[in-house]
Amino acid sequence: MGRSPLNVLLLTVDAFRADRTSLHGYQRPTTPTLERLAKNAIVCDHTFSLGTFTQSACIQLLTSSRPLSYGGYDNGARGRPPTLFKRFHEAGYRTTCLSTLHWVNRFFGYGDGVDEEYQLFGLNTLPGVALAMIRSSLSGYQSGEIPQDSMFSTVEPVLLRLFDNTLEYCTLSRQRRLELSADFPDSALVNTRYDYAKVEKLIDRHRNEFLADKVAYVRKHLQPPPMPADWMDRWLPREWYYYREPSKLLSEGLHKVGHRILAPFDAKLARGRKNRFKIYPDARSLADKVISLMGERDWSKPFFIWTHFMDTHAPYVSGPGRKWYRHTPEYLAALGYPRDLDPSITFDGKPQREEDKTAFSALYDAALRSTDEEIGRIIDARDRLGLRDNTLVVIAGDHGEELGEHGDYGHFFLLYDHNSRVPMLFHHPRLDEQRIGDLTTILDMAPTIATLAGIEPAPGWEGRAVTAPEVATRRYVLSETFFGGNCLFEHRPLYMGVRTKEYLYLWKEFRDPNDSFSPEGCELYDVNADPDQKTNIFRSDHPIIPEFNTLIAERLSEIPEVSPERIARAFGPEAAETAAKAIDEEMRAHAAD
Question: To which H or E segment does residue 126 belong?
Answer without folding.
Answer: helix 125-143
